[in-house]
Amino acid sequence: MQAGAALPEGEDKVRAVRAMFDTIAPRYDLVNRLMTFRLDVGWRRRAVAALDLGPASTVLDLASGTGDLCRTLAAAGHRPLGLDLSLGMLRHARGNAPLVQADALRLPLAGGSMDGAVSGFALRNFVELDPVFAELARVVRPGGRIALLEVAEPANPLLRAGHAVYFGRVVPRIGAALSDASAYRYLPRSVAYLPAPAELLERLAAAGFGALVRRPLSGGVAALVTATRRVESRPADPPGAR
């Protein structure tokens, strides 16, 4: 993805995102640890704890990448299932969780088959959010929980200014030195795909989730959104769902 080029949309975005993550998969974990100063490890633990599910719960890790959240879920006593569009990421995944290559807009899962779901910094990489939220509402049982991590912008003006410089200038340089320059130029720009926090919560509510909470993490450089699948009639399985 060229610097300054318009952000891709539709099927162009699908192809670009899949190719990008296939490319950066070999050193993805290393770059994450360095550019977050290992804060991402704690964020994932917070997300899993916030699910507040019983032991041995079946939890979908949507856009599981190299399996960080799957491993955190397993360490907490849950039964994770990883799903990602990028075969390259799945091939570099570590851990024993079952993994599936699939599109988040068409989850190959039966309705109500998951006790919960998590996702780590993936919302801005989906082509559309509303169908993804609808699929999560379909596969998570009534009363089940979701926990979604995403990058954010600090509310404090000084922190926001410093974060903008770090995320927009330093992170691409770290990525260029250790992995793929174009990918790490794209990732800070991809924040533009995210809706405003209030709108994100409204769209989750419209999909069938309640008890919505958004928590800033580490001064607001990341955010954790949790929600409960409302106890109501769930959407029917689409054709071909298992």
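(the above was protein one; protein two follows)
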Amino acid sequence: MPKTKHNKKRNTAVLYETLMVELTKAVLSENNEQKQSILHLISEHFSATTSLKQDLDFYRALSETSGLDRYTAEKLMFEIKLDREKLLDKKRLFNEQTSLINTMNRRLAGSVFSNFVPGYKSLATISQIFSSDVSTKARVLLEKELMEQLIAELEKPSAGKNIVQIDNLVYQTFTKKFNEKYGDTLLSEQKDLLNRYVMSFSDNGVSLKLFVGSELGRLREYLKEAVITEEINSDPKMVNSTKEVLLIIEGFKTQPVDEDMIKKILKIQDLVKEIQN
């Protein structure tokens, strides 16, 4: 395939994923100031009313899809290209990209654009398919390449693939810090919770919220059953403590899933394990 030019700073999805990787690094290094700065950038530049968010959705519709039959894949690619051409204000998008790029250069490390971006090749292919500067021949070949992705079957995730969308360096850093701080003392459910928390920024916390909801339900039901057992019911202090924990869990319903809540859930998980033993 002839080599085609790709400007990653004008690739909306690459800009977003670059911020995600930088955010992950800030979380792992416990740099809260940097974390909040990046979260503000994402919130400001990728809000629902921006052209950047609109364009990101077009990229995601192609980059996050697979397992289609060939007809549906061709139809999807055609319709997304058509909608993007009709609905996206290209001048506004260019200005928003420029603003974001300038802000990233000012606020983040100069090496930020050198971050390894998961799925970069696919995002670059989509960007060139969207571009009017790519020759017809090159675009057809690129579309054929993307087609293979759209019709490929999704690989089923295994138990060891909870952490995704971060490069090897970040993963190794996380593992090192994780082991240094907690060693082998964490329960499997606590490790799962922390893993999901670290990676929650990649999907706006959707998977984390789902997991937390399920885990709190499990903890709540166990404590409700435990409080009426003879061992706990015969100890007024234990009864009161268990009821207090249940009230804390109920209070979580109206609170955002943040670092403070995660720490409290870790403690409750420890408590339940102690009762079980």
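Reviewer note on protein two: The CA atoms of residues 3 and 138 lie 8 Å apart.
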